[in-house]
Amino acid sequence: MATKLLLLPPLLLLILPTLILLNGPWKAPFRPSDLLPLLPRPVSWTILSSLHSAVDLLPTFIGAATSSPNSSLNWKGACFYNNTAWMVFHNKSSSPFGGGTLHIKASKAHSWTCIDLYIFATPYRVTWDYYFLAREHTLDFKEWETEAELEYVKQNGVSIFLMKSGMIGTLQALWDVFPLFSNSRWGENSNLAFLKKHMGATFEQRPQPWVSNINVDDIHSGDFLAISKIRGHWGGFETIEKWATGSFAGHTAVCLKDSEGKLWVGESGHDNDKGETVIVVLPWEEWWAFELAQDDADPHIALLPLHPDIRAKLNVTAAWEYVRSMSGKPYGYHNMIFSWIDTIHGNYPPPLDAHVAASIMTVWSKLQPNYTDLWNEALNKRLGTKGLDLPEIIVEAERRGSSFDELLTVPEQDDWLYADGRSTSCVAYIVEMYKQAGLFHPITDSIQATEFTIKDAYILKFFEDNSSRLPEWCNEHDDVKLPFCQITGKYRMELPDYNTIEPYPHMNERCPSLPPKYIRPDGC
Ligand SMILES: *[C@@H]1O[C@H](CO)[C@@H](O)[C@H](O)[C@H]1NC(C)=O
Ligand SMILES: *[C@@H]1O[C@H](CO)[C@@H](O)[C@H](O)[C@H]1NC(C)=O
Ligand SMILES: *[C@@H]1O[C@H](CO)[C@@H](O)[C@H](O)[C@H]1NC(C)=O
Ligand SMILES: *[C@@H]1O[C@H](CO)[C@@H](O)[C@H](O)[C@H]1NC(C)=O
Ligand SMILES: *[C@@H]1O[C@H](CO)[C@@H](O)[C@H](O)[C@H]1NC(C)=O
Ligand SMILES: *[C@@H]1O[C@H](CO)[C@@H](O)[C@H](O)[C@H]1NC(C)=O
User: Where is the signal peptide (predicted)?
Assistant: First the structure.
């Protein structure tokens, strides 16, 4: 039996089913009747069976396998009617945190040809396997990634999800995208190959030196930093995000000068010492030194200077007020998915769809107890309800004659307040700052910052359009003169449609985003 292992930071769970579905339908000689999953809990089955297609693909949470001798987990699968699972910790790898083995004993198959297909997950990794034989199976976790993972598994166990077995071919496709997340030259090349193939990116090498000799006097408040990471966990995550949204950058930050002329960087999505992803304001020197020396994602960074007329509009006091008010708040997990999904059919690269989004949410909600409300809270706001869980939300949406698909397309409102405060992704944070600082005047009230993807931000006609006004050190050693200043990176960055769209009311609230062309209708 094949066991594929993926090491992922928590956020990547978000895209797991994206990857799962990349490979299309499964073609193996099993009888269709063997492919129907049975849900382990009669109660949830009752709720879910009324939903038919809306939940067909939902992974079913079985429970968590722990090492406690009293409480080995027992359930009925789709194929094997008696399954038991438990964890045994070990230290075969002599690593700081040791490893563990998950034991699964499967018996009472209902047919000769059936299989059970499972996803196993901790907040730090996702693995899958399938079982065809009635016997004891093991799944080895050679070593835990961090102390936090060891502690998590000790306390909460490894979560087990039963999948519809027809998903097996698509799960196998995971193996192909695994290298996207590898922190190596091989992983980096896999990202480049993926983006070339699926987005038509070019990745031409630039002449050395790859780091600009920056004079901070030439950087001003409101200048935008477009960042593209191509290696390691964040590289893999950004690759999928770029592909799904059509953005040629995967992360953003913004420059601000204080009254003494000192330069700062505001960033939503900075990993702090505790492993949390938060909003920060850092001195430029500190931020830049980190990007150059410590960021192992091989960041490519471009400075997009504001147009002088736009800069003149920027109320720096108001920008600072906003940035200070957000400092230390968690990254905008609640709404990041909604900036991308605006339409029922025009946003998901096939065969991705709202079912997959629901699957992601199902897996996520079991793994991040502190973020259980991650999307539920956002979905409840869309319904005007409170505290409904995912199945209840789906039921409620259908009861009102709507659907889960439709619910996902309801635009986020910037003034929605979540339990942990306002929620902003890396780019919503900057667009909101622009909004507060007056850049969208006089249509400020009809702009929802949380509806902007990274591409939506860099195509705004806000930036310098006269190359003779770009700083001297900008693209100094490159004979190809970009319309913005790439300040680090081996490959030339490209931002198609950069600086082309004047803001208009309700912009980006109804935009499709389908690869490979990502055609954007006027006025969407
Ligand atoms: C296991 O169960 C026994 C009897 O029910 C109980 O006394 C004991 O505390 C339990 N041990 C653990 C580790 O839960
Ligand atoms: C299910 O399997 C477990 C472990 O193999 C066994 O102890 C138990 O008796 C089995 N239950 C049934 C109903 O067969
Ligand atoms: C595993 O073994 C190594 C080397 O013997 C040791 O340093 C480490 O602390 C052990 N880890 C655990 C979790 O026991
Ligand atoms: C700039 O913003 C501050 C704080 O919001 C406000 O008090 C001030 O009136 C604004 N200045 C202008 C010129 O709009
Ligand atoms: C969840 O939050 C609580 C309280 O803030 C904290 O003690 C705990 O470590 C957190 N758990 C995880 C898995 O982050
Ligand atoms: C570009 O900027 C230069 C220097 O400020 C100026 O002389 C020139 O007229 C500008 N060109 C355009 C097309 O605005």
Answer: 1-22
The residue nearest atom 3 of ligand 1, judged by CA position, is: 70
CB 330 within 8 A of CB 374: no
| Cα(37)–Cα(160) distance, integer angstroms | 15
Domain spans, the chain = 2-51, 56-169, 185-335+421-488, 343-408
Nearest CA to ligand 4 atom 3: 318
Instruction: Mention every residue, 6+ apart, whose C-beta is less than 8 A from residue 241.
Output: 15, 247, 250
Distance CA 316, CA 114 (A): 64
Residue 441 CA to residue 430 CA, distance in Å, equals 16
pTM, entire model:
0.68
CA distance 248 to 200: 10
Ligand nearest to the CA of 94: 3
The half-sphere exposure of 444 on its side-chain side, counting CA atoms within 13 A, is 13
**Tokens 């630039």, residue located:** 206
Distance, C-alpha 300 to centroid of its chain: 19
The verdict on the CB of residue 317 being under 6 Å from ligand 4 is yes
* pLDDT means over runs of 10, the chain (524 residues): 29 35 27 27 31 48 83 85 94 92 92 82 77 90 85 88 66 54 75 87 94 96 96 79 87 96 95 81 96 89 98 98 92 66 56 53 59 73 87 79 80 79 86 97 93 93 96 92 96 96 93 81 92
Return the residue matching tokens 């590289």: 235
Both tokens assigned to 240: 């999928």
Ligand 2: residues with CB < 6 A are 82, 84, 105, 107
Q: Ligand 4 centroid vs 222 CA: distance in angstroms?
A: 16
- The residues, any chain, with a CB within 8 Å of residue 289's CB and separated by 6 or more, are none
Ligand 2, atom 12, residue with closest C-alpha = 82
Instruction: Kindly state the DSSP code that residue 421 receives in the 8-state scheme.
Output: B
68 lines ligand 1 (CB under 6 A): yes
